[in-house]
User: Which sequence fits this backbone?
């Protein structure tokens, strides 16, 4: 399906579906995040001017696959996410609304099973006024913890520092934390939903649009919570990383925990089911422990050495 629109200021614009690889290349090259997730790209619409692709709207599966249940009564396939949006500066902000509205029209034709579109706005850039212009409803915000690597400028969500399932990557990220390279800050993540079938009602109740706001809230003297510090100590100690294990323990001491309380925390975390399973499955030889230590040491010198952590935020912003 193709939509052609004659505009006053932008000339003739054409909107139509584009392929997965085309959309991926355009987003990685131009979007501020420079990131592409495996859930992205199940449906993509591009905007063309004089035959040249000038922007793309990328839709995909829900990042939180179970979240459709609090939106729709029609099953997982009834909710899709608008994950990424990029428009060439030549076209300007007005074209963003045109791209969203045109992509929705095409989506309704080719994917009739989809009843709702969900998307999230990154509070660092604003509160999502583009969604208001595109007639999305607003459903509140959450406050997410992020970290910035002061040496490289890289920004990432807290998840890679807490995900025991990716144990080596988790320890590598936290080695940056213990080295003093990370600065913590909060970002508001604004949630928006568009109802494609006006006869259907979302389970959630919309609220008034937020007042305009942008930026982040920097956290002075941030320290990990005790449970995470204890979990990290147990992991580092298990692989023989004495330096970072000591760092984790000393931070607990600085939080006011005495030796008995620290021992209790360590004993509890050493019995964590995920940790016990990973010990048996992935870290059952001395060589596997040595390899983990080498990756952690290398990560401090060359961030790209460890690539077993998906940097994508639990919420992905357009």
Assistant:
């Amino acid at each position: 399906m193709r939509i052609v629109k004659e505009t006053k200021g932008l000339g003739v614009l054409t909107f139509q579906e584009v392929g997965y690889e085309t959309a991926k290349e355009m987003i990685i090259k131009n979007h501020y995040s420079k990131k592409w997730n495996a859930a992205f790209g199940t449906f993509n619409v591009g905007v063309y001017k004089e035959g040249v692709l000038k922007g793309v709207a990328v839709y995909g599966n829900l990042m939180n696959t179970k979240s459709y249940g609090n939106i729709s009564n029609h099953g997982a396939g009834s909710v899709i996410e608008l994950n990424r949006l990029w428009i060439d500066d030549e076209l300007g902000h007005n074209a963003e609304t045109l791209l969203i509205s045109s992509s929705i029209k095409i989506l309704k034709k080719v994917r009739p099973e989809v009843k709702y579109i969900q998307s999230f706005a990154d509070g660092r850039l604003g509160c999502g006024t583009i969604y208001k212009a595109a007639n999305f409803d607003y459903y509140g915000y959450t406050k997410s913890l992020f970290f910035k690597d002061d040496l490289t400028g890289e920004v990432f969500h807290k998840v890679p520092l807490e995900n025991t399932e990716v144990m080596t990557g988790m320890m590598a990220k936290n080695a940056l934390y213990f080295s003093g390279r990370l600065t913590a800050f909060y970002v508001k993540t604004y949630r928006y939903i568009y109802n494609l079938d006006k006869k259907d009602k979302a389970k959630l109740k919309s609220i008034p649009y937020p007042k305009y706001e942008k930026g982040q809230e920097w956290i002075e003297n941030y320290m990990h919570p005790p449970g995470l510090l204890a979990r990290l100590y147990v992991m580092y100690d298990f692989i023989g990383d004495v330096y970072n294990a000591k760092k984790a323990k000393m931070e607990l001491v600085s939080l006011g925990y005495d030796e008995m309380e620290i021992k209790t925390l360590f004993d509890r975390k050493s019995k964590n089911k995920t940790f016990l399973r990973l010990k048996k499955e992935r870290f059952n030889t001395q060589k596997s422990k040595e390899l983990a230590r080498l990756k952690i040491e290398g990560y401090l010198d060359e961030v790209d050495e460890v690539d077993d952590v998906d940097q994508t935020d639990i919420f992905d912003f357009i």
